[in-house]
């Protein structure tokens, strides 16, 4: 390599690695694809199968229960009207497809992020290793995750889900670690003095007190997942993202506005519900 004209073939190395990975772990990739596609298909069938009016009441009831019986009527009313507008805009199936993909990605991201965050809170060595990786993941442009996902899994819902999981995962890890570390040390010491085991302290003391901060992290995971799912329309994912990409390709302003408004309604619903659930934790009550 000429030092005056440097060239590192990083792209070629990445191509070679992906080719090797696809060949060596084809069985694993097929399994992941089967699981993700099955989860999405099943959840989409549950959300889109019943009459839309039934789902309107279901979503409104969830919102009401999340906030509370006394104060939840406002969010329930907004949810009912908002999802009715989505149906009136003829974006119901697209919205349910997007919601299904978001829920699948969020569940898997949290299954990875929450234990990793707890581990990082318990071990400073793990925290030092994880932190720069999370910094790198959050610094990477969102669209950059789609390219290797499409190469490995082709087009469709699966690459969109994979890219969404990777993109949305960092806040879950960070907020969980922060939440566990913020638990009052005296409370933990008191539990230890009474002979509580480490697992008992984690599940009965630290996690309940850290719930509000953890829910804030879950809220961020959901919001990032929703934003990424819209971009995943470029990977062939259906739903509102696909409608937005279609509107760009055909210069259909009306379709873009309709799909965009549906995304906003979904985002407000998910944000308010998760925020309300987080405010009910022991940590939130202790701070009042």
Automatic annotation (TrEMBL):
Subcellular location: Cell membrane; Membrane
Keywords: Cell membrane, Membrane, Transmembrane, Transmembrane helix, Transport
GO biological process: choline transport; glycine betaine transport
Membrane-spanning parts: 39-65, 72-89, 95-121, 142-169, 214-237, 249-270
Domain of life per record: Bacteria
Molecular function GO labels: amine transmembrane transporter activity; carnitine transmembrane transporter activity
Membrane topology label: Multi-pass membrane protein
Domain ABC transmembrane type-1: start-end pairs: 95-274
GO annotations of cellular component type: ATP-binding cassette (ABC) transporter complex
Similarity field: Belongs to the binding-protein-dependent transport system permease family.
Name of protein: ABC transporter permease subunit
